[in-house]
């Protein structure tokens, strides 16, 4: 079996471009998985090595959050705050929401997936920007 280094390089570039931790591709009987190891110690600043020049605020946000009810992304995709560009946002900081209310849309494979609130509360913080890639389990909203 010959490994195509171009595919690995391309997948590695996607990790950096979309700030992902892993990506996998399957073609016929070949499966290639590329991942990066992000180890961070809580309450310690994260050191980014020169080999990965990405600047991301996600690890910093994760350390500061942890107070309130976290609502996480149910899938990997791109988060959107409104149903279409220019439309009213689903939620804003300070808005009272109920369990089941749509808080965001996560687009995955050209499908718009409405993300419902998992509990009642007041929006304390919106943790992702509009159009930002999100991963499964990533905190997207914090409720009080």
**Low-confidence regions:** 39-66
Provide the CATH superfamily of the largest domain. RNA polymerase II/Efflux pump adaptor protein, barrel-sandwich hybrid domain
Beta-strand fraction estimate = 25-35%
Query: What is the total domain count?
Result: 2
CATH class of the largest domain: Mainly Beta
- The portion of residues assigned to helices is 10-25%
Task: Quickly count the helices.
Answer: 2
Q: Report the C-alpha radius of gyration, rounded.
A: 17 Å
Major β-sheet strand ordering = 3-10-8-5
CATH architecture of the largest domain: Beta Barrel
The whole-number mean of residue pLDDT values reads 77
Number of strand elements: 10
Structural features, described:
With 144 residues, this protein is α+β, with helices and mostly antiparallel strands. It folds into 2 domains: 1-37, no CATH class; 57-144, OB fold (Dihydrolipoamide Acetyltransferase, E2P), CATH 2.40.50.100. Helix content is 14%, strand content 33%. It contains 2 helices and 10 strands. The chain has a 4-stranded antiparallel β-sheet, with no helix packed on it. Strands 7-6-4-9 form a 4-stranded antiparallel β-sheet, with no helix packed on it. The chain has a two-stranded antiparallel ribbon with strand order 1-2. A hairpin with a 2-residue loop joins strand 1 and strand 2. The longest helix is centred in the first third of the chain and has 13 residues, at 5-17. Mean pLDDT is 77; it is low at 39-66.
């Amino acid at each position: 079996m010959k490994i195509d280094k171009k595919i690995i390089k391309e997948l590695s570039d996607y990790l950096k471009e979309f700030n992902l931790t892993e990506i996998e591709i399957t073609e016929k009987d070949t499966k290639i998985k590329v991942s990066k190891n992000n180890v961070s110690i809580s309450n310690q600043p994260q050191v980014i090595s020169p080999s990965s020049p990405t600047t991301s605020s996600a690890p910093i946000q994760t350390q500061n959050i942890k107070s309130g009810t976290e609502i996480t992304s149910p899938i990997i995709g791109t988060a959107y705050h409104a149903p279409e560009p220019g439309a009213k946002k689903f939620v804003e900081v300070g808005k009272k929401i109920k369990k089941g209310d749509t808080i965001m849309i996560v687009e995955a494979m050209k499908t718009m997936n409405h993300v419902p609130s998992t509990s009642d509360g007041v929006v304390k913080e919106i943790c992702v920007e509009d159009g930002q890639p999100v991963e499964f389990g990533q905190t997207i909203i914090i409720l009080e």
